[in-house]
Structure formats: structure tokens, C-alpha cells
Q: What sequence folds into this?
């Protein structure tokens, strides 16, 4: 499952350049996007952008730091959800408008991109890339409003879907979340700067302290060293993506006042209560399954241990283009510890199962290493529906839980038993009201109505 992108922004009160802090902030958010990275910097007169394909430390170097000076900066790490993976779709996107240079970085996914693209093309606009973020920039640049803030509000009245945005002008930094707050975005502060980050772990790396989450439907503007806020929409229910708690966000981050690590440990504890089994060892699928496995072991009294070693120098297996390469990717990425699992009944804890191909390979690896039994436990409910808001899940035809019974999934995975965390206990583990989350991938309750044309693609296209 591909995760959402990561955005970061800094407004410095001093004349020193915040480029290096944005660079470090993107390092902290690297787990949210590994296809491309970019930084835009304003010196109050001009805006410059540097971006490229690859990881943060592949795109930037000391020469970059020496070239990009300014008082305000934004950064972005990307996974493609709308738009292919190429340099044309890397962000931040920079436009020259009647309001001056504007750069923006987007986390999320719009659901009315096709209509917007047709409308803008009819008005004579052409596009360099294929991302929905470029459409957002185009809507700002073509607004008939007299100032940039009004132009942004004008744009917000036209787009639909999930979006957390950081927008840089030559003299201001603006951050906002969509009316449902589907993607996270927080405000922090250092002694000399205001900071925006997709996750609070981005604050920790530069020594910023967390102030608060940006509210759904809120626009935050920093200009002339002062911060102010306005609500542009307050008639939609909050619907933060629950997968931020299950998998996407780093376990050392805090969202809505809740520790991601504690929530995931709780998921494992509830999972042990729901699906107990006699076994010798509890092991996680590293890294994302570790907290839940710790919780499962603690609640069940079964020892926790390492059974799979992760090669930390390879990319995530889901970026491979076909099943054959995906299977090979699992073997490159994970290797069983034979002495740890040989002859033992093993409980494997993972955060989710999407297609099932990776889980099937993991079970095969453990059995080849000598495990006598393999019991799979999943710290989230069955994924039955695709996402349209910025997570690149499979189509419904590819979602294993949407097409097979529990017994059928267990047979396909070749496990001795299989158990998923219930939706009720997932919400209990997070310890926040259910109404605050988007749970559509589990219960088909989409907070923003999805066009039928878009649903058809996710239903049948493979």
C-alpha cells in the first residue's frame, strides 16, 4: 500500500536560510514518499525551487544548501497517486502568477481532477505533468480575485477530495487542510520560526515544539512574522484517514493528541484478545508490525522475538510493477532467522493485508525456515474498498478480502490460522471517537462523495 506524501514548511523570523531545516524535516517524513523530493525557498524577492527523483539525500547536497537562500521555505516528498512517477510531477510546483511567484506542495488526492482538467483546457491552459497538484496551482493562477488569499479561497471552492497544502509566496507561508481533515498537518514553533509538518516527528528533528493540529477546513497564514487563521469551511464532518494510525505515520509521531506507538501497541493487545492461539513465539513483519506485535505478546504472554530481518537498503516491495517482481522484492527485503523459528509455532503480526502477495511470500519464507506452524494476525480490519483520497490501494478486483472469505484468504496465504482486528476494537485502540475518522476502506462510508466514473475505474480496472 502506497502511503500519502509528506509536506513541510518554515517561516523564519530571522534572515537566516531555513533550507537546512526543511531538508532535515523531509528526512523525518521520508517514509511518506520515496519517489521524489523538492524544496522551494523565498528570499522575499524571488522564489527558487530544486527538486528531483529519488530520496532526499539523493536530490540535495551541500551545493544545494549554498544555492538556495531565503527566509521562507517549503518541502515535499512524494508517492504518486494521481499522476505518474516522473520529474514533471515532482513537487513543489512553482508558478508565476499576477500575485507573483507561488510554490505549493500537496498531500492528498482530488476526486474531481477530470472535470477540472477539462475545464482548464477549454480555457486554453496546458499542463506539463499529470498530477492533481498542478491543477490546484493552475486554479490559483487563473483566479480573477485581487489578492493571493482570495485566490486560494476561490480555488478551494472548486476542488473536492483530500488535501493538506503548504503554499509559499515571496513574502508569506500558508497552510491548510480540506474540510474533512483527511490528511494530517500540524503547526510547530522554534525560537526563530513557525513550522508546518505532515507529522510531529518533523518537528522533533529540528527542535521545534508542537503547537496544535491544523483544523479541518482551516487556513493558516504567516506574514510579517505573525500568524493568523481563518475557517474556509465548517460544514463537513471530520474524517482523518484511520491508516495514519495503523501504518502511515511514524510511531514516534502524535496525531490528535494520541501517540501512534501507544495506539499500535493497543491494537496488538486487542488483537490478542480477539484471536488467541497457542504458539511459541510472536514476531512482527518489520518495521510497521513491531508495536502491534509487542502488544500481542504482552497481552497473550507469548514471548516476543525477531523472526524476520529487514534489509534496510531496499525500497518497499509494492513499488514493483508485477507480481513476479513483488515476490522477488520480498525475498530481497526480508530474510527469516532460521534458528529463531525452526520447529516453533509462530504468530506473525502485520498491520494490514492488501493483495495478499507479500503475506503469502512471508509465510512461505517462514515455513521454508522450519516453522512448524504459522498463524497470521492483522492489526486492522479487512480492507474491502479502495481509497480515493491519496492512498494508492489496489482496485476492488485486487483486494483479497473483497473477493475471498476468511477461510479462502487463509488458504491462499497457506497459514494455520488467520485473524483480523475488528473495526470496533480498532477504534478502541486509538481511543478517539469513531466519527472523527474516515473508515471507508473498511465500511464503504466515504466522507466525500466519489464520482461514479472514478468508482468504476477502481472497481474493474487492473
A:
Amino acid at each position: 500500500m502506497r502511503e500519502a506524501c509528506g509536506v513541510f514548511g518554515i517561516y523564519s523570523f530571522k534572515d537566516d536560510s531555513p533550507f537546512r531545516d526543511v531538508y532535515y524535516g523531509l528526512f523525518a517524513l521520508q517514509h511518506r514518499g520515496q519517489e521524489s523530493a523538492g524544496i522551494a525557498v523565498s528570499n522575499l524577492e524571488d522564489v527558487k525551487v530544486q527538486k528531483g527523483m529519488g530520496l532526499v539525500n539523493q536530490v540535495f547536497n551541500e551545493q544545494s544548501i549554498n544555492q538556495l537562500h531565503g527566509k521562507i521555505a517549503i518541502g515535499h516528498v512524494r508517492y504518486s497517486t494521481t499522476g505518474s512517477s516522473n520529474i514533471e510531477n515532482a513537487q513543489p510546483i512553482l508558478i508565476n502568477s499576477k500575485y507573483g511567484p507561488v510554490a505549493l506542495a500537496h498531500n492528498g488526492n482530488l476526486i474531481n481532477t477530470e472535470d477540472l482538467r477539462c475545464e482548464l483546457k477549454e480555457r486554453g491552459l496546458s499542463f506539463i505533468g499529470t498530477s492533481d497538484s498542478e491543477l490546484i496551482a493552475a486554479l490559483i493562477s487563473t483566479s480573477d480575485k485581487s489578492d493571493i488569499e482570495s485566490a486560494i479561497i476561490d480555488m478551494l471552492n472548486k476542488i473536492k477530495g483530500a488535501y493538506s497544502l503548504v503554499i509559499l509566496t515571496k513574502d508569506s507561508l500558508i497552510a491548510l487542510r480540506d474540510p474533512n481533515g483527511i490528511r494530517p498537518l500540524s503547526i510547530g514553533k522554534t525560537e526563530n520560526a513557525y513550522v508546518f509538518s505532515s507529522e510531529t516527528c518533523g518537528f522533533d528533528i529540528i527542535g521545534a515544539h508542537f503547537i496544535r493540529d491544523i483544523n479541518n477546513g482551516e487556513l493558516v497564514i504567516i506574514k510579517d512574522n505573525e500568524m493568523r487563521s481563518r475557517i474556509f469551511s465548517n460544514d463537513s464532518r471530520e474524517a482523518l484517514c484511520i491508516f495514519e494510525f495503523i501504518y502511515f505515520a511514524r510511531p514516534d509521531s502524535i496525531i490528535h493528541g494520541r501517540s501512534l506507538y501507544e495506539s499500535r501497541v493497543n491494537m496488538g493487545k486487542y488483537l490478542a484478545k480477539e484471536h488467541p492461539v497457542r504458539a511459541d513465539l510472536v514476531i512482527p513483519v518489520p518495521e510497521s508490525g513491531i508495536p502491534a506485535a509487542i502488544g500481542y505478546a504482552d497481552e497473550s504472554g507469548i514471548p516476543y522475538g525477531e523472526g524476520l530481518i529487514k534489509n534496510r537498503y531496499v525500497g518497499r516491495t509494492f513499488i514493483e510493477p508485477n507480481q513476479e517482481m513483488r515476490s522477488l522484492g520480498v525475498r530481497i527485503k526480508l530474510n527469516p532467522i532460521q534458528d529463531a523459528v525452526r520447529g516453533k509455532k509462530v504468530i506473525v503480526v502485520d498491520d494490514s493485508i492488501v493483495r495478499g502477495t507479500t503475506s503469502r511470500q512471508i509465510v512461505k519464507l517462514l515455513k521454508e525456515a522450519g516453522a512448524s506452524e504459522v498463524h497470521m494476525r492483522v492489526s486492522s480490519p479487512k480492507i474491502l474498498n479502495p481509497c480515493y483520497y491519496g492512498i494508492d490501494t489496489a482496485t476492488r478486483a485486487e483486494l483479497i478480502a473483497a473477493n475471498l472469505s476468511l477461510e479462502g484468504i487463509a488458504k491462499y496465504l497457506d497459514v494455520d490460522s488467520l485473524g483480523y482486528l475488528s473495526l470496533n476494537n480498532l477504534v478502541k485502540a486509538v481511543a478517539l471517537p469513531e466519527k472523527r475518522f474516515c473508515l471507508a476502506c473498511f465500511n464503504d462510508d466515504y466522507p466525500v462523495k466519489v464520482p461514479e466514473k472514478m468508482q468504476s475505474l477502481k472497481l474493474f480496472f487492473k
Observations:
- The chain has two domains: 6-236, 261-436+451-460.
